[in-house]
Amino acid sequence: MLRIIAIICALVLSGVTRAGAEDITIAAASDLNFAFKELIAEYEKSTDTHVKLSLGSSGNFYAQIQNGAPFDLYFSADIGYPRKLEEAGLTVPGSLYRYAVGRIVLWAGTASRLDVSKGFDILRDPSIRKIAIANPKHAPYGRAAVAAMESFKVYESVKDKLILGENISQAAQFIESGACEIGVIALSLAVAPAMSGKGVYWDVPIEAYPPLEQGAVILKQSKNPEAARRFLEFLQGSQGQDIMRRYGFMLPE
């Protein structure tokens, strides 16, 4: 009987603790996959806030938010999307924040014999049948990949080999699995501990594509705008900035 009472008390106390906790839901671009998982883990250690993370393409999230998707925070790989939401009156005034500038890299699996140090010229290698990038229709990193290929004048000769991932993480998975020999992915994925031993990369010169200015915003429909604001402040703080820097992001001044 005493054991049953103890279990009931534990469940009740757990429920009280959980009820006192705050939840926020974040919609984040897939290039933030590994950086944000580490960031959230550190944030939850020091707060009573539970963070739910949804990863996907910035464009798809933009469309979902316009249709009322229940997110508190939106982290886009293209600051243009949150700006449009701000113009439409769908954000908390003054919350728009340019949190990082992203980078792209040419990436191939470690089992590949391709020399990525040759840069985009390697894409003309006849042994390459499939090249992975994110879908440029709704993924900013996909648009950057196309722009860089055009800058290096290889796009027209390789465009029929392109395999489009739903987002930049899926493009990386295509290469990692061997479905594609090579591709263009986010630097933040290439340097992540979970990925660094699985491939080699070449930094695409930043002047070869439009700046990947990434923006965040608190959504007007947020149920916990104060909790969302505190998470944004944590990202802006020294610990959050250190994490973002380690994943290859260029940070705003």
Structure characterization notes:
This protein has 253 residues and is α/β, with parallel strands linked by helices. The chain folds into two domains: 2-101 and 212-246, D-Maltodextrin-Binding Protein, domain 2 (3-Layer(aba) Sandwich), CATH 3.40.190; 102-208, Periplasmic binding protein-like II (D-Maltodextrin-Binding Protein, domain 2, 3-Layer(aba) Sandwich), CATH 3.40.190. The protein is 41% helix and 23% strand. The chain has eleven helices and ten strands. The protein has helices at residues 2-20, 33-45, 58-66, 80-87, 140-151, 155-158, 168-176, 187-190, 193-196, 225-236, 238-246, and strands at residues 22-29, 49-56, 73-76, 97-102, 104-109, 131-134, 162-165, 182-186, 199-203, 212-218. It has a five-stranded mixed beta sheet with strand order 2-1-3-10-4, sandwiched between helices. It has a five-stranded mixed beta sheet with strand order 7-6-8-5-9, with helices on both faces. Helix 2 runs antiparallel to helix 11 (238-246). The longest helix has 19 residues, at 2-20. It is globular, with a radius of gyration of 20 Å.
